[in-house]
## 1
Amino acid sequence: AGHPQPDARSLAAGTALLTFIAAAPATAHLLFLISGGASSLVEVLPAGVTLSDLQHANAWLLGSGLDIARLNTVRKALSAIKGGRLVGHLQGRQVQVLLISDVRGDDPAVIGSGLLAADPGAPRLDELALPPWLAQMCRQSPVHRGDISAHVEMHVIARLADAKRAAGDEATTLGYSVSVHDEFIDGAANTAGQRMAQSLIHATPGVHIWGGETTVQLPPQPGRGGRNQSLALAAALELQGREDVVLLALGSDGSDGPTEDAGALVDGGTIARGELAGLDARHCLANADAGRFLEESGDLVHTGPTGTNVMDLVIGLKI
């Protein structure tokens, strides 16, 4: 189905999901496998909301700079199955849910916009600075009550901490001194990139590992790239001329924003290499066009789909 923008296949998946549940015997035990991305991959729209409405809303959300909890507050308002509403279709059947978490705190009510978990503590729509057209769309959408069921058993089976630990174990195997940092990297990607670079410059030698998920507020006509590419290019500006530090920023699912690149690996020569193509790094950052600069500097990383999604990794090497 469509990701990060839902499409007609996302609605077909939602219809197939409800059909499958309805056809299951009343005594059936159902197993749900839910990962990050489910907000886009499966959807059932409430009356009065069209696919075009959903796509318009999602396009604004993806460029708004809002964090995932606030994004999902709007997504739940425009859905007939999110925010725990799918529970109402289970009719008391026993359910086990295995989740791959792409959210801070690994909350089942936030992963995939909470298909099977309501979140009474989520931000309220009236607390969000939504454009008038989107606020009106949310108000017009019929209100559904999300459910919580004792028949639903939740297990988070993969999370960001697992990816950080695995990266650290591999670095140790390769003979590096390793520091896995607890700090969650969030906020504006450009600011985070500057902060990560400075942390590495002043760090002890070895491999340093962080994780999290930053945001990018898109201009009216964004260029090419994603949050990890913006973070990496901002870090490269801080690392200019240095020969002792490299930094890798990438999405664990192998896709950074609406691109097929996972992120970028930058060093002290990144800016100089990109400038040889006549590009200005700060101009590219301001225009959400970091990917174009990083392609010219030769620093983009392409992995293809990884089969998981546990947010982003930032890995630095100080020698």
## 2
Amino acid sequence: MPLMLAWIRNRRRRRILRSPWPDGWDELLQQNVRQYARLNAPLRQRLRKCVSVIVAEKKWEALDGLQVTDEIRVTIAGLASLMLLGVDDYYFDGVRTILVYPKPFRRKTRNGWVVDEDQHLSGEAWQGGPIVLSWHDVVHGARHPQDGQNLVVHEFAHHLDSIDGEMGGSLMFSDNATNQLWRQVMQREFTALQLAVRRGHHTLLDEYGATNEAEFFAVASETFFERPERLRSRHRELFDLLVKYYRLDPIQWQLAER
């Protein structure tokens, strides 16, 4: 980013963060982002900063008769912000627009609607484009923080996956050794999930993760934030690498609640 643009962005963010925290936003987070109650004071403050910036900087659009409300913005921003608690000064900068449907939707293409009327989606993340979400599915996953389903985490994980130019489950760590280890562990776990699904076995990771490597990373991220203890117990190397990637450990949030 050119220095002038970075300076303008940072100045704008400082102004956003100086603004008072709105009345009612804590209540929305308590209601719809259940992990929020488990965070210690510094992490709550960090999450509030992330929410403030995401709400202010993103272009929010509601479709099919849905109206954009504070609940929609704060809930989606709050869930996405859980993924940012281990980093500083990053707010999903590559996501400019968040589109919200009231319920599962049919995919749009540049040429119009997809012909298949039975194809309804809960969410999408477009390479270099917006995040698209079904509000119904956002709320269901948000209010059940241990069911392993979190649409916002899933779609924003796709965005993180796309930063290197493609959505293929490849992640960028700070050193080549960890990059190679991730590829090895991810491929092994992905292959094992595919085999388990074909055999009809119950799996901790949602079977949708067997679709391809991109979906595997998104599903693994959901499980990491919603069922971290089970993930550590049954997929320790995968869990440890996700701790290193996100720079946080959600198990500590669960311990704080006990």
